[in-house]
Amino acid sequence: MLLTAFGAVAVTFMMVMYALERRHRAFVLAFACGCLLSSAYGFLASAWPFGVVELVWAGVAVRRYMDAGSRPDSALPR
């Protein structure tokens, strides 16, 4: 029950940060953190393919965060 609640909170956080990421690049980094939390849930729930995919998405999000820092404005393009 506690693991399920953790997973639900992690995925909800991740999706909210994804929805907000065009507002500021900090939300992209927060999305990466949400992906890491979701990955942890996947491994804890013995759903390792989900854990691996979320780990990859975390890496993609960190890369997007770093790339967004090289732009003159702090928002991502629409």
Strand content: under 5%
Order of helices and strands: HHH
**SS elements, strand count:** 0
How far apart the termini lie comes to 39 Å
Which geometry do the CA atoms define? flat
Low-confidence stretches: none
Number of helices: 3
What does the largest sheet look like? none
Query: What share of the residues lie within helices?
Result: over 70%
Report mean pLDDT, rounded to a whole number: 91
How would you describe this protein?
- This protein has one domain.
- Helix 1 runs antiparallel to helix 2 and helix 2 packs antiparallel against helix 3.
- It is 77% helix and 0% strand.
- The mean pLDDT is 91.
- The longest helix is centred in the last third of the chain and has 21 residues.
- It is mainly α.
- It starts with a helix and ends in a 10-residue tail after the last helix.
Summarize the structure.
The chain has 78 residues and is mainly alpha-helical. The chain has three helices and no strands.
Secondary structure blueprint with pairings:
Layout: H1 2-20, H2 25-44, H3 48-68
Helix pairs in contact: 1-2, 2-3
Give keywords.
77% helix; 3 helices; mainly alpha; 78 residues
